[in-house]
Design a protein that fits this description.
By secondary structure, the chain is an alpha+beta fold. The protein has a single domain (about 5-120), classed as Pnp Oxidase, Chain A, CATH 2.30.110.10. It has helices at about 5-15, 55-65, 85-95, 105, 110-115; strands at about 20, 35, 35-40, 45, 65-70, 75-80, 115-120. A seven-stranded antiparallel β-sheet has the order 2-1-5-6-7-4-3, with helices on both faces. The longest helix has 11 residues, at about 85-95. This is DUF2255 family protein.
Length: about 120
């Protein structure tokens, strides 16, 4: 399943994405965490500010699924860690969207880059 162009546009224009990976039971959502998100090549990406130590990141990698809410949308999603060259355009998207933030340097640094997740909608 993929995001619709309208969903991606709305998410890309917003700054309110909340991520809630499943808890250990695989059915209960964790506490929603507000995080930055970017859209690159019709895909949605997020990063852990605290890198792979971020609690939501650890849960997302372990459970591989959960829910996100953003721009008035709520979607069941899957989480996929990514690495490699895709991080360069993701960095550029973060620089474009969050240029004025004092946190930008950390979000395009090695710690956060190591905790990059692709979020895809899933059928439930």
């Amino acid at each position: 399943m993929t995001w619709s162009p309208d969903e991606l546009r709305r998410i890309a224009e917003s700054d309110d994405l909340h991520i809630a990976p499943f808890r250990e039971d695989g059915t209960t959502y964790g506490t929603p965490t507000w995080i930055w998100s970017v859209v690159v090549d019709n895909a949605l990406y997020v990063r852990g500010y605290n890198g792979q130590k971020s609690r939501w990141y650890q849960a997302a990698v372990r459970q591989k699924a959960g829910r996100v809410t953003a721009a008035g949308l709520a979607r069941e999603v899957s989480f996929e860690p990514v690495d490699g060259a895709v991080n360069d355009p993701i960095d550029a998207a973060y620089r474009g969207k969050y240029a004025a933030s004092p946190y930008l340097a950390a979000m395009v640094g090695p710690r956060a880059r190591s905790a990059t997740i692709k979020i895809s909608p899933r059928n439930t």
